[in-house]
Write a structure and sequence with these properties.
alpha/beta, Alpha-Beta Plaits, Rossmann fold, five-stranded parallel beta sheet, four-stranded antiparallel beta sheet, about 30% helix, Methyl-coenzyme M reductase, protein C
């Protein structure tokens, strides 16, 4: 399925929602503010143009935007939360990732600062719960090379950014030009750099997850409807933002057309005492 974002008039937005569901799609994360309705959509590739034409009708005045990173959890790791290590490009990068649909969490090591920073076991586990890790470093090559040791031996795809032009290797993908500067990335050259960075991220995710199984959003909506908890789509399953002790057993007993969720997927405790549900890509289609 293809992830999209719909933005249009709140008036008669229920009609658009029903239309999407009639096409076999899913409407997720509905948000209405003032006269504008905005929600995430998962729909078959063949139905995208049909939805675009319907959204363009005058009564909806809507538009449909592609969000290629929807259903992806990204960890952005910086050396510390001090202003020196949390530069404006960090904000621009995180915002651009979120506009592309990603769920982004920023992490800074609790021990050490800059080149002396180390990742504790719990921090590594937290990073590895994400689908992609992005380490943002600074300007000097020798500093970046030392900090790059933080990024190794992680069981997750890793991107490293910095001003130096370093080579990628088997463990790390290095993207140059994004570094610490005292301004936001607003001028055309800066936007070009961010654009190239996003192309690399989208390409990496596309190679790891060519398509989103229809069962993922289906299970998400069923869990949210039954328990009233927030569920985040991941590349290989779901994150349920609820207490593991309270909900894990109940989730495992949920009946779907393919059987019990606990028998088909793997339900694990997250580092934040939430719930990680790992699902195979071969889950039968709805």
């Amino acid at each position: 399925m293809m992830p999209l974002k719909y933005i249009g008039n709140a008036f008669e937005s229920d009609e658009i929602i029903e239309f999407i569901e009639d096409l076999g799609g899913f409407v997720l994360n509905i948000d209405q503010m003032g006269g504008v309705a905005e929600f995430d959509v998962m729909i078959d590739h063949e139905s995208v143009n049909i939805l675009r034409k319907r959204a363009a009708l005058r009564k909806h005045s809507g538009r449909v935007i592609t969000v290629p990173l929807y259903g992806i959890e990204v960890a952005v790791i910086i050396p510390s939360f001090n202003l020196h290590h949390t530069p404006f490009p960090h904000c621009s990068t995180v915002e651009t990732l979120r506009q592309a649909g990603a769920k982004v969490n920023t992490i800074a090591p609790a021990r050490g600062v800059g080149r002396k920073a180390i990742l504790m076991r719990e921090e590594r586990m937290m990073i590895e719960e994400h689908d992609l890790a992005i380490f943002m470093f600074g300007c000097f090559e020798h500093c970046i090379r030392e900090k790059m040791e933080l990024c190794r031996r992680l069981n997750v795809p890793v991107i490293v950014t910095g001003y130096a032009d370093l080579e990628s290797d088997d463990e790390l993908i290095f993207i140059p030009s994004i570094t610490r500067i005292p301004t936001m990335f607003d001028d055309p050259d800066d936007k070009r750099i961010i654009g190239a960075f996003m192309e690399s991220v989208i390409s990496i995710i596309g190679s790891l997850r060519p398509d989103v199984p229809a069962t993922y959003p289906y299970i998400k909506t069923e869990i949210e409807s039954k328990f009233g908890v927030n569920v985040v789509l991941k590349m290989s399953g779901l994150r349920v933002n609820a207490s593991y002790d309270e909900y894990a057993e109940k989730l495992g007993e949920m009946e779907f057309y393919f059987g019990k969720l606990g028998e088909f997927g793997s339900i694990k405790r997250g580092t934040q005492d939430d719930i990680i549900i790992e699902l195979p890509l071969s889950v039968p289609s709805v």
